[in-house]
Amino acid sequence: MAHNRLSRLVTLTKIIVFYYHPDLNALHEELKPFGLTILAFPSNQFGKQEPGKKHEILPALKYVRPGDVNGQNEHPVYTLLKVSYFGDSFGNVYGRLFWEPMKVNDIKWNFEKFLVGPDGGLHRYYYSFYIYPI
Q1: In a domain, 75, yes or no
Q2: Is residue 134 in a domain?
Q3: pLDDT digit string (tens) for the chain, length 134 residues
Q4: CATH of the domain at 101
Q5: Is residue 132 part of a domain?
Q6: If we measure between CA atoms, which residue out of 17, 112, 12, 31 comes closest to residue 60?
Q7: 115 in helix, strand or coil?
Q8: Residue ranges making up the domain that contains 17
Q9: pTM of the entire structure?
Q10: Which stretch is the leader sequence (predicted)?
Q11: How far is CA 103 from CA 4, 27, 73, in A?
């Protein structure tokens, strides 16, 4: 039953911290037969924690497209996802967020996740401070 549910979902995961990259590669390979795909978008917009360039990040994490998740240069995938989710507050962000213009529905910190169906519809959003079992 859980495998059927997984086969209908695509997980888009934005990651920042380097040591998680190999684990996501392994998880992607393990769940690929069930139709789950993990895509990661390392970004240096949160506390400047991912300063690596594309050629430095790609050897550690196979399924990534480094870039911005917010602001003028945000990746189009995030533009589409954020149309479906509207946050209500940024909280205390002084000196930690690095993009303009800031919008209330922007990604707010590292490791926020989206579950997306094969039709492109957003099924669920996970804020980075909470981990929910699938």
Answers
A1: yes
A2: no
A3: 444 444 334 444 433 333 456 677 777 788 888 887 777 777 777 777 777 776 666 665 666 666 788 888 888 878 877 776 654 444 555 566 666 676 767 777 777 777 777 777 777 777 665 544 44
A4: 3.40.30.10
A5: no
A6: 17
A7: strand
A8: 2-126
A9: 0.55
A10: none
A11: 36, 32, 14
